[in-house]
Amino acid sequence: MSKSAHTEAQIIGAVVQVESGRKADEVAREAGVSNHTIYAWKQKYGDVEVAEAQELRHLREENARLCLRPRPASTFPRAISP
C-alpha cells in the first residue's frame, strides 16, 4: 500500500465537502486526485472523524509492529519425541 500524499484531515475534509453537496469533480480537482479516489475515500472514511482515523492508523501500525516481533523460544510448542 502506498503512502498517501494527503493527511487524514484532508481526506475527511474532502469527503465532508462531497457529502455536503459539492460535486465530486470540483473536490477532486482541488485535491489533485481522480473522481475514483474521492469515491474510494468516501467509502473508507465516510462516517469517520479525524481523531478516529488517526487512532485507527496508530492501532494498525502498532498491530503490524507487534505481529512482526519475534517471540521468545519458550513460547513455541515443543515437539513430542517418541
Q: What labels would you give this structure?
A:
0% strand, mainly alpha
Blueprint of the fold:
Blueprint: H1 8-19, H2 24-31, H3 35-45, H4 50-68
Helix pairs in contact: 1-2, 1-3, 2-3
Gyration radius over CA: 20 Å
Terminus-to-terminus distance:
47 Å
Oligomerization category of the chains in this entry: single chain
Structural class estimated from helices and strands: mainly alpha
Element string (H = helix, E = strand): HHHH
What is the overall shape?
rod-shaped
Total number of helical segments? Answer: 4
Main pleated sheet = none
> Which runs of at least 5 residues are low in confidence (pLDDT < 50)?
none
Share in helix: 55-70%
Mean pLDDT: 84
Give the tally of β-strands: 0
Strand content: under 5%
Tell me the count of domains: 1
In short:
This protein has 82 residues and is mainly α. It has helices at 8-19, 24-31, 35-45, 50-68.
Molecular structure report:
The chain has 4 helices and no strands. The protein has 82 residues and is mostly helical. The chain has one domain. The chain is rod-shaped and about 70 Å long. The model has no long low-confidence stretch (mean pLDDT 84).
